[in-house]
Design a protein that fits this description.
Shape: globular
Strand content: 15-25%
Radius of gyration: 18 Å
Oligomer: single chain
Strand order of the largest sheet: 3-2-1-4-5-6-7-8
Order of helices and strands: EHEHEHEHEHHEHHHEE
Largest sheet: 8 strands, mixed
């Protein structure tokens, strides 16, 4: 899929990776992009900046809390009406919180399930649509253990499992399911890592020292990889983009792929 002249919606698009994805889609001549984010997200400032760069009619903002089914349905209806349809959905909304972990699960897992299923119903051929593309942003912590953030890691494993499983519906829906797993990226989420509380049984001092050594990347690198994934990725493609490394496709194993050893 060439992103040129396509319509797109991005959850969590007012900052971080989501915002950079909006920029890159517009730079590659997407017709119009809808940002869905919390009213408290400074989305108005983000849209003002984007409109000054790309034009008023190509960027739209819709208030949406992905933890609310009612808000998700209402905002997606407005997106389709405003954009005249939907070709691409990027699920970028997410959080990292070791303390308020129930809300983290609701945002990272339940929220993403809500928007993914609705996106399939809007774009899917089974519902009279023309098909489309959904990219779910997980994390490198969705394919490898993350000792420091076990609950966050669990939410991202859920995103990987959901996306990999839904790819099997492509023949009926015509909606490609793609997966992006970024390494540590310089975003507000990452900035808060150094100040957050950790689970009581971790060595906090060691964790802080280790985190300072982790290589990171700007969100623009992830967004550029996102456009490449959308334009070149086959249904089910799962990619990692990490600091100083090229975008690479990884294999999510099926049951037949598993290597088994006796206990």
């Amino acid at each position: 899929m060439d992103v040129k002249d396509k319509t797109a919606a991005i959850t969590g698009g007012a900052s971080g990776i989501g915002y950079s994805c909006v920029e890159q889609l517009l730079h590659h001549n997407a017709k119009s992009v809808a940002i869905l984010d919390l009213p408290s997200s400074k989305g108005e400032d983000a849209v003002a900046q984007l409109r000054s760069q790309f034009g008023k009619g190509r960027v739209h903002l819709f208030a949406c809390d992905v933890t609310s089914q009612e808000q998700v349905e209402s905002s997606f209806k407005k997106v389709v009406e405003t954009l005249g349809g939907l070709d691409i959905l990027i699920n970028s909304a997410g959080c990292l919180d070791n303390v308020m972990w129930e809300r983290m699960i609701d945002i990272n897992v339940a929220g993403l399930v809500r928007t993914t299923l609705l996106g399939i119903d809007i774009m899917g051929k089974h519902n009279g649509g023309c098909g489309g593309t959904i990219v779910n942003i997980a994390s490198i912590a969705g394919v490898t253990p993350a000792t420091e953030f076990p609950i966050y890691c669990a939410t991202k494993y859920a995103v990987v499992g959901l996306t990999a499983s839904l790819q099997g519906s492509y023949d009926r829906t015509g909606v490609r399911m793609l997966l992006m797993c970024p390494g540590l990226t310089r975003t507000p989420l990452a900035d808060n890592m150094m100040e957050m509380s950790f689970l009581s049984f971790f060595d906090h001092n060691k964790l802080m020292a280790d985190m300072k050594t982790w290589p990171d990347q700007p969100p623009e690198d992830v967004a550029k990889a996102m456009v490449k994934l959308i334009e070149k990725g086959k249904n089910g493609a799962a990619c990692i983009v990490a600091a100083n490394e090229p975008l690479c496709v990884i294999d999510i194993p099926t049951y037949q792929d598993l290597v088994k050893h006796e206990l």
